[in-house]
Design a protein that fits this description.
CATH class of the largest domain: Alpha Beta
Strand content: 25-35%
Largest sheet: 5 strands, antiparallel
Structural class: alpha+beta
Number of helices: 3
Radius of gyration: 32 Å
Number of strands: 5
CATH architecture of the largest domain: 2-Layer Sandwich
Shape: elongated
Distance between the termini: 105 Å
CATH topology of the largest domain: Alpha-Beta Plaits
Number of domains: 2
Order of helices and strands: HHEEEHEE
Length: 179
């Protein structure tokens, strides 16, 4: 091979390599453009959802018109516990906490602390479902369960029981008075 043909071969290979690089770059650019389009659509959708969430957070969906007495709330709790097969001695404490104003609105939150011991997760879920299904203005704002203990109804079947601390909150419509 002559030096001229070697030069032409090197130029041709270099040109072929440049064409291949250009094709690869073009494909990568198209893929990046498509990915950016999908990302932009996702961003727009997320922003719309965030705006909807902000609007919903600004106005409560349901609120009681008056404060629920501790007796009536304790009755609701007892009924939900009985329906969930939780014994009364498993309910350690029902304690109303101080109500608090919700930001700059005409609503107050009335939290109530409930402590239960020796309940199974199935009983706990059933209790909360029963309680919340009947009371649309009631909400669980805090739930803390601690490590299970194992009790035994019979020697062969241990039962896992938990300590549950629940804060139930009523939303109350309480317009501010101007005076």
């Amino acid at each position: 091979m002559t030096s001229r043909s070697k030069s032409q071969l090197i130029v041709a290979l270099g040109f072929g390599l440049l064409v291949a690089l250009a094709v690869w770059s073009f494909q990568e650019m198209r893929a990046a453009r498509a990915s950016a389009g999908v990302a932009q659509k996702n961003l727009n959708h997320c922003q719309e959802l965030a705006q909807k969430i902000a609007k919903v957070r600004q106005r409560p969906t349901m609120a009681a018109l008056e404060e629920t007495t501790i007796t009536s709330l304790a009755t609701l709790i007892d009924e939900a516990a009985t329906g969930s097969q939780i014994r009364k001695n498993n309910i350690v404490r029902i304690e109303p906490l101080p109500s608090r104003q919700v930001a700059e609105t005409d609503y107050k939150e009335q939290p109530t602390y409930v402590e239960m011991r020796g309940v199974s997760l199935q009983q706990l879920v059933s209790f909360m479902h029963t309680l919340l299904a009947d009371q649309s203005e009631l909400d669980v704002t805090s739930l803390r369960i601690t490590a299970p203990r194992y009790e035994s109804d019979s020697p062969t079947t241990p039962v896992e029981t938990w300590l549950a601390e629940i804060t139930l909150t009523y939303l109350i419509y309480s317009p501010k008075t101007n005076g």
